Q: What sequence folds into this?
């Protein structure tokens, strides 16, 4: 069963369900940027992208052709046996042979921001982008096609893969390759999955996450893709996905040390650090004159890399020369200044001031509520943790956990109830001391083993690994 | 699906650059449902955790980037104020204009920071809920240890942003003339201006929060209490019923 929705003009939502394998499959189609067809398409905004499904064969491959009008824009295929998707985008769609195809995949290491957790001061220099990226030549694809029984693909697709010209830049387009199950032996598909898109120097791509992960199964990430206009006449496609990251990066965030060289060092700036930065920049003659290298040297902060400085400098420059608002996209803010002007004309300055004052009041109120809420949430969790600990202790000591004999447990539960129900929604300066977070008062020296499974309310026993997997 | 609906509404109303940065609550819920009917329990849990970690990563990256921007803008605003107060030659009119601009900017800046804290909170809430659903449907024990980890994540540790918000408020107090009573016309003007920009977002966020915390069927003594805002009516009057989200 397949469903396809096409919204004019540019939003295509595809959800592909293969009932046989009870897998949710998804396809992502990436469309081109800067190819002539893209230009055509952009100019004729009424054209829609059609998705043509053609069904499988012995190889259990299913192929989807993406067409605009009569021209094929891309392919997406799924090989059930190998459980891999491959998506191809075509460019320069003259119907004969001026076309170019390339297959790309990438991993999530494409974020242009790297960060180091400030506590850890990692001194190792992580590469800016974790994985090198290169465009895969279409010849490899052709080889694959030959190897894998080209009859599985639409036959009219073959002529569309000449050599890929090197100077064809790719701008904010991406493809996904998603294996849906363990792929035992390395194969061509896997190689493909490892190859990434090159990045233009001047372009900071806004890569959404792309996955290659052989351990993902039974997934149902639903992917939406919007085809919209990006800079210039190129189409850009943003893929929203639930499954980013490459296999090497299956590490928990904010612990780069546990991930070895694949880790993404994350930098968390502080006002003090920024002060040092500004000082250094001023010493070097201002934000225009200062270079990242110079600033880095002057700042002398361990663990800071030139990439951090570079991106920070960029932000700094933007903030200076396009003061407020600088961090939002242009679309949101363009209407506002215009309205400001007209409303400034109509209103007296005191009215404006009053309006602003009101705005601040509301914002303050929101902030207050958020802080209270966060506080409560934290205490709920703390309470939960405490209760769990108590419970485990009792189990260890052979007390029947289901009997309401535990006065401590009851007491702590009532305490929490009282605290929560009595906590006012208004301003609360200091949270009441959490009376329950004092296991030390128990005087029992019990070694708590959090991986011990809880018999409470749970039908299944967990393997200890799954509890600790987080 | 109440939270899911609220979340979706919020995402639609929020700042454009932020829309993709929220929790994929709906999809995760589907996955939980799928997992609960699948047999490969252990493996599915690992994958679910993997997905959650990716969401967390997404939050962290976005949050820290916004935080960085806020640090820069905060300093810049202070510089602007300093500059405007120190520069003598400009005429009174220009001075007033610049101050008015700074005031508007700083108030919007304040709002944006608060919205980031709100972002953090909403995603945390969603995470907590999805974990609870997971445990409930699969009989797992994922929630408690996992949420402990979430509590330590950068996106949840909003202290710095809150500090900046406070500092901003101090600056605002200094910047605005000491107030007299606001006449009704003033309030009206304010309400008209409230339909635009950041103010609209913060009002919407406040109302969303209230909605999310309305009593539900699963309310227990571990749930957050119902939110009672004294100014609900006033704040509600700020909301403009535009069926078409303003981009």
A:
């Amino acid at each position: 069963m397949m469903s396809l929705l096409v919204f004019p003009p540019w939003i295509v939502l595809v959800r592909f369900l293969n009932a046989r394998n009870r897998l949710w499959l998804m396809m992502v189609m990436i469309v081109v940027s800067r190819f002539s067809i893209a230009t055509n398409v952009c100019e004729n905004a009424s054209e829609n992208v059609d998705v043509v499904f053609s069904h499988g064969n012995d190889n259990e491959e299913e192929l989807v052709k993406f067409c605009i009008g009569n021209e094929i824009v891309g392919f997406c295929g799924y090989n059930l046996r190998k459980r891999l998707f491959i998506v191809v985008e075509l460019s320069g769609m003259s119907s004969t042979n001026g076309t170019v195809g390339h297959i790309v995949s990438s991993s999530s290491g494409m974020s242009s921001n790297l960060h180091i957790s400030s506590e850890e001061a990692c001194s190792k220099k992580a590469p800016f982008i974790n994985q090198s990226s290169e465009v895969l030549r279409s010849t490899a694809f052709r080889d694959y096609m030959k190897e894998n029984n080209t009859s599985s693909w639409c036959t009219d697709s073959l002529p569309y893969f000449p050599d890929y010209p090197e100077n064809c830049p790719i701008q904010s387009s991406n493809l996904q390759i998603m294996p849906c199950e363990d792929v035992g032996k390395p194969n061509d598909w896997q190689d493909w999955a490892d190859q990434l898109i090159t990045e233009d120097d001047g372009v900071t791509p806004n890569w959404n996450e792309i996955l290659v992960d052989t351990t993902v199964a039974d997934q149902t990430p639903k992917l939406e893709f919007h085809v919209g206009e990006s800079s210039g006449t190129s189409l850009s496609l943003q893929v929203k996905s639930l499954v980013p990251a490459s296999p090497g990066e299956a590490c928990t965030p904010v612990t780069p040390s546990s991930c070895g060289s694949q880790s993404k060092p994350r930098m968390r700036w502080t006002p003090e650090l920024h002060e040092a930065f500004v000082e250094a920049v001023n010493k070097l003659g201002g934000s225009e004159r200062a270079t990242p290298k110079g600033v880095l040297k002057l700042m002398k902060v361990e663990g800071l890399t030139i990439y951090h400085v570079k991106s920070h400098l960029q932000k700094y420059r933007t903030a200076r020369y396009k003061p407020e608002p600088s961090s939002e996209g242009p679309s949101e803010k363009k209407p506002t200044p215009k309205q400001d002007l007209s409303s400034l004309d109509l209103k007296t300055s005191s009215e404006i001031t009053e309006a602003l004052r009101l705005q601040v009041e509301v914002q303050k109120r929101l902030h207050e509520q958020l802080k209270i809420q966060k506080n409560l949430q934290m205490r709920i969790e703390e309470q939960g943790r405490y209760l769990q600990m108590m419970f485990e202790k009792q189990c260890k000591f052979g007390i029947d956990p289901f009997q309401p004999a535990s006065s401590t447990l009851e007491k702590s539960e009532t305490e929490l109830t009282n605290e929560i129900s009595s906590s006012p929604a208004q301003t609360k300066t200091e949270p009441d001391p959490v009376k329950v977070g004092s296991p030390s008062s128990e005087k029992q020296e019990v070694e708590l083993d959090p991986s011990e499974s809880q018999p409470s309310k749970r039908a299944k026993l967990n393997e200890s690994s799954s509890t600790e997997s987080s | 699906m109440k939270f899911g609906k609220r979340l979706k509404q919020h995402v639609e109303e929020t700042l454009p650059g932020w829309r993709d940065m929220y929790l994929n609550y709906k999809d995760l819920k589907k996955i939980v449902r799928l997992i609960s009917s699948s047999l490969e329990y252990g493996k599915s849990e690992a994958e679910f955790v993997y997905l959650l970690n990716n969401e967390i990563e997404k939050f962290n990256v976005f949050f820290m980037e916004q935080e960085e921007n806020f640090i820069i803008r905060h300093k810049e605003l202070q510089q602007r104020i300093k500059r405007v107060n120190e520069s003598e030659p400009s005429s009174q009119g220009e001075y007033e204009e610049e101050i008015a601009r700074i005031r508007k900017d700083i108030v919007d800046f304040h709002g944006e920071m608060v919205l980031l804290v709100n972002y953090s909170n909403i995603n945390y809430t969603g995470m907590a809920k999805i974990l609870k659903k997971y445990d409930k449907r699969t009989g797992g024990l994922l929630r408690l240890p996992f949420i402990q980890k979430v509590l330590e994540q950068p996106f949840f540790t909003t202290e710095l942003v809150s500090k900046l918000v406070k500092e901003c408020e101090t600056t605002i107090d200094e910047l605005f003339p000491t107030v007299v009573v606001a006449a009704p016309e003033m309030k009206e003007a304010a309400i008209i201006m409230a339909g635009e920009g950041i103010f609209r977002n913060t009002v919407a966020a406040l109302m969303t929060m209230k909605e999310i915390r309305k009593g539900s069927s699963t309310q227990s003594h571990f749930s957050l209490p119902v939110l009672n805002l004294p100014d609900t009516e006033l704040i509600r009057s700020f909301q403009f019923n535009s069926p078409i989200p303003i981009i």
